[in-house]
Design a protein that fits this description.
Helices cover 34% and strands 18% of the residues. It has one domain: NADP-dependent oxidoreductase domain (TIM Barrel). The protein has helices at residues 29-41, 64-76, 99-113, 132-144, 158-170; strands at residues 4-5, 12-13, 18-19, 46-48, 83-88, 90-91, 94-95, 118-123, 148-154, 176-180. The longest helix has 15 residues, at 99-113.
Amino acid sequence: MERVQLADTNLMVHPLHLGGNPFGWGADRDQSFAVLDAYAEAGGNFIDTADAYSVWVDGNSGGESETIIGEWMASRGNRDDMVIATKVGMHPKHKGLDPANIRKCIDASLRRLGTDHVDVYYAHTDDENVDQVAVAETFDALVRTGKVSYLGASNFTLDRLQSAMKISAKYSLACYRVVQDRYNLVSRSAVDPQKQAYLR
């Protein structure tokens, strides 16, 4: 079973991670379970979701994907075998990276996922209306309390990501270890290199 180290974390993951966006709208509970079972049976262990999935669908309120993944792990008894990533900041009713919002959203995500921690917690998007030091301190507290193992950033510009990394280093706070940008099997075009964010 092939595993690769995720950036400079201690997490060993399958090279292909499974995106949980369709769970709860493109795939119902049974269909989602079938996809998750097939992924796990093929050796997969890295599942990505977000609290906003799939709030855009009529009748959904967000968190449907997390709930399905949580129910699947509970039914299979495999939480310790999975690496779970989720995100905060893009849910329209819980938007942004205000510290109180982050704290509220991580607890809600943990309840839906049926776990006491997430392996990777992403800032789903940057929030220029909140002081970056306050954001870094809040995420650091989640790592220190064990609710989050590692931090990630998504949809950041390079300048803002570099700024966040400098703040984490200056104040000895947990830093973003992984970055998720729009580049996948469907979207192969490169993002403007001036706006693309990379950790080096």
